[in-house]
User: Fold this.
Amino acid sequence: MDKQFDLVVIGAGPGGYIAAIRAAQLGMNVACVEYEPALGGTCLRVGCIPSKALLEASHLYHKAKHELTQFGIDVGKVALNLPAMMKKKSDIVGQLTGGIAGLFKKNKVTHVKGKGRIEAPGLVVVELTAGGTQELTTKNIVIATGSTVARLPGVELDGDRIGTSTEALSYNEVPGHLVVIGAGVIGLELGSVWQRLGAKVTVVEYFDRILPGMDTELGTLSRKILEKQGLVFKLGARVKSAVRGDKGCKVEIEGSDPISCDRVLLAVGRVPYTDGLGLEKVGVALGKRGDVVVNDHFQTSVPGIYAIGDVIRGAMLAHKAEEEGVACAEYIATGYGHVDYDSIPSVVYTHPEIASVGKSEEQLKEAKIEYKKGWFPFSANGRAKALGSTEGRVKVLADAKTDRVLGVHIVGPAAGDLIAEAAVAMAFGASAEDIARASHAHPSLSEAVKQAALGVGSGATQI
Assistant:
């Protein structure tokens, strides 16, 4: 193993492994330190990928059980094989984590297995998984250690009956009653998985709405759809405690009767992970929420040390970390690297999906920006009707004077894919008219985006 590197990346999640590969492509001698046996970080191992595998599997199960007859397909009795579903999930994770190892080898990135800490600027000490320590000297260091689950006072995690998303991805049976604390992305996605598979699911949220931070109209519409599917919401509710007893769990809620249930999923967000990195020792400044403070070029308060992804400010999204990984590596190599934070989309993979990019109506009103709004329902879209998935709508927000697109919000089938058109349009400074005048295939779901853009101006032509 080389002991002298141009760059050492600590963490092999979406930000870290992408930064390492991009830096290697730019000619740097790179090492990436990771203490988990599998590469890919939380996203690949116990986050984005396994949750999407279960979301797809549970949706297919629910569709086979309740929806296929409307298409003239009679399948008889539908049975759940939970072990097989979990195996499929694990197989997908294994294939993708193995793929990153292959990419490291292809790009000549040195994979150092162990837990790294910054001993001094230019020096990373690794407690090797195989035993002993290894010193890595380097010109630059990138901190890409990601985030960990946020805790809630009074909620006694036991790693089984009262757990986090990690446990909820691997239940060995369908809970009779699952209480989800938190109506954010993780809570809604995993709540949907287990509700489709047969659990009663109650979602408890401190705020008076689901998906805090997203467009309010989007959240309200999504809640109504999810309630029709069977999710029960208790909004404006503060959880005092969650404890495990002999016959299940009990969740205490301020000003309300306690809820008895079989399992509890704590999903109140995530916090930056910096434990054991030695940041205080070398003088790396931290923010109020424990995040690593960086400038516009991802530089920390210590020269030669950078940070990206969940460990710094901004939305905790895998693709945001990837963009920062590329930009940081390019800045170190070339002196230039940039991320357009105004065009980073976010997606909730419920059914229908929920997707946003840019500003919400609330943010525009708060900033006193005058805007125009166009919208279009999937109930008027031919492709959505053919799919049997007509709930939801597309909303386009544009500057009232310039017509430049400021935000796009979608609830509907394949919203996570449709939002990409809006993200690209915004990245290029497009107007609503630009989207509206571009030809969209017929019949396709993308026509709903075109029609919503038309609605900003002269009006949609299909309603």
About this structure: Residues 346-456 form a domain with the Enolase-like; domain 1 fold (CATH 3.30.390.30). Residues 82-106 form the longest helix (25 residues). The chain has a mean pLDDT of 97.
